[in-house]
Design brief:
Elements lengths: L24 H10 L3 E5 L3 H9 L4 E4 L3 H4 L11 H14 L4 E5 L9 H14 L4 E3 L7 H9 L4 E6 L5 H4 L9 H16 L3 E5 L3 H10 L4 E4 L7 E4 L1 H4 L16 H18 L11
Parallel strand pairs: 1-2, 1-8, 2-3, 3-4, 4-5, 5-6, 6-7, 7-8
Length: about 280
């Protein structure tokens, strides 16, 4: 491996780099050219965004998964633009280097390219997002083309697209058989339309590998094997807060157990009178 592709903490390295500026879509393209893999994590508030940003995560996604992990719904469908705008603004304020991508929620872009532009403009003008993400293949090509021509960077999303879960008949693997050829065609069409990256969710690993090698833009996998250019997870999943995570989730911590331990210890101290102690009390 040449020095140009060896992971480091130089300013040219996407993950962990220190460039003193925001990551851009050009940086993501350059990382693909170098063969550098990178992580993307969801974020919904300023405090966690600051932690992830300081850790060197180059892209933060304000996902419509907020519908479930923030607002308590059982799917992504109910969340609105007005719900996601303040979350996106908080993530932008909490970060200084990461590229912040805002999900366009269900019903905010499917109607027409003009609707998509109006929704995306709100995320960029009111919340300071640097890019938007939308789901779908050929059916959203006019929206992608309109957004890109207006100066809005677009991240695409293929495979399991949660906003279409009712049409798909549930959360299941996509892209098997003939559907794989259709997904490949969609990916190439989205690239031609100007998308700067494409998320591949819950697709067979061999298909994700073929798509990755066929595209000049980065692919971001979630349940799509190890051959994609990047990987994304919902932060509550990877930190162990989700009771029944999907097969593709690896837990890197057990914050659920730690939060339970800490709040019980606090409650016990309150009940016993051990808290607040003199050192926590003003004279």
């Amino acid at each position: 491996m040449s020095s140009s592709t060896t992971p480091s903490t130089s300013s040219t390295t996407l993950y962990g780099g220190a460039s003193g500026r925001r990551v851009t879509v050009r940086d993501l393209a350059a990382a693909k050219e170098r063969g550098e893999r990178w992580p993307m994590v969801t974020a919904y508030d300023a405090m966690t965004a600051k932690v992830f940003d300081a850790a060197g995560i180059p892209v933060l996604l304000v996902g419509d998964s907020a519908a479930m992990v923030v607002y308590g719904y059982d799917s992504t469908l109910p969340v609105t633009v007005d719900d996601l705008l303040p979350l996106t603004a908080a993530v932008v304020r909490g970060s200084s280097r990461a590229l912040v991508v805002a999900d366009l929620p269900f019903g905010s872009y499917q109607g027409s390219p003009q609707q998509a532009l109006e929704s995306a403009a709100r995320f960029m003008k009111e919340a300071g997002a640097h890019a938007v993400k939308l789901e779908g293949g050929r059916r959203v090509l006019p929206q992608v083309e309109t957004l890109v021509s207006a100066g809005v960077p677009v991240m695409a999303h293929l495979g399991l697209t949660p906003q279409s879960v009712n049409v798909m008949g549930g959360y299941r693997v996509q892209g098997r058989g003939q559907a794989g050829a259709e997904l490949m065609a969609d990916a190439k069409d989205l690239e031609r339309a100007g998308a700067f990256a494409v998320v591949l969710e819950c697709v067979p690993a061999d298909l994700a590998q073929r798509v990755t090698t066929s595209l000049a833009i980065p692919t971001i996998g979630i349940g799509a094997g190890a051959a994609t250019d990047a990987q994304v997870l919902v932060w509550q999943d990877l930190m162990g807060l989700t009771p029944r995570p999907a097969k593709f989730v690896k837990r890197y911590a057990d914050l659920g157990a730690e939060l339970d331990r800490a709040v019980r210890a606090f409650a016990d101290d309150v009940v016993s009178g051990a808290f607040p102690a003199p050192e926590h009390t003003y004279g």
